[in-house]
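ESCALATION

Customer reports they have been waiting on this structure for their group meeting. Please prioritize. Original submission:
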Amino acid sequence: MDRNLPRVMVIIPTHDELDNIRELIPKVLAVGPNIEVLVVDDASPDGTGGHVEEMSRAISRVHCIRRPTKMGLGSAYRDGFRYALGRGVDLVFEMDADFSHDPAEIPKFIEAARSADLVLGSRYLDGVTVVNWPLRRLMLSYSANLVSRVVTGLPVKDATGGYKCFRRVVLESIDMERIKSDGYSFQIEISWHAWRMGFRIAEIPILFVDRRVGISKMNRRIIREAMVLVIRLGFARLLGRRPRPPRGVAS
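Update from on-call: job pushed to the front of the queue and completed.
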């Protein structure tokens, strides 16, 4: 492997994603020899964890954390971040398991990370780039992002998306014990903390395509959790210090 290439780990949380994950992992690895995959599986009854664990024995760039029960998206990423940092990687990705995030777009994130500490894949940067969502779901997502931006001050158009690339310094600097969210609101909260700490955030447009197979994890509890979080961060913004200026990007 070219030593000038950054070491990259793509974290993919799963629960019952066998049909997707066995196709997705080869596509992610095909992006480049510097790309590794970490699947964090929450006791999938369909055998996702067992399948990935078997792959990891044969392919050194595949890693698997199997957890004993369904513990949530936020805690899956926290566990994944700790693992990735312990492996010494330079860039850490978040990616959904259902092909809504195209692995072919990984190089765009890596390029953007040359001048940013956190790169967000945005569905709303160049208009609306979402395919196959019902209008109600699209309106809910768009409205949630608008409210989030106004209330929390987080200056991005897509705070709830889950296709991200972190420089390791961002994850090393955030106290993960302060991240309370365990659903999709985790995405808002961790980006908000990065912004408040003065890290540079860049958005790049992505094409988001609704899942091909399997069942969405979105439910009313997750929506309520996000609403409560946005209000809490809004108060924290009003009562706390102003965001520090960007630290600049590590070379």
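Sent to customer with the following note: The chain has a mean pLDDT of 90.
Escalation resolved.
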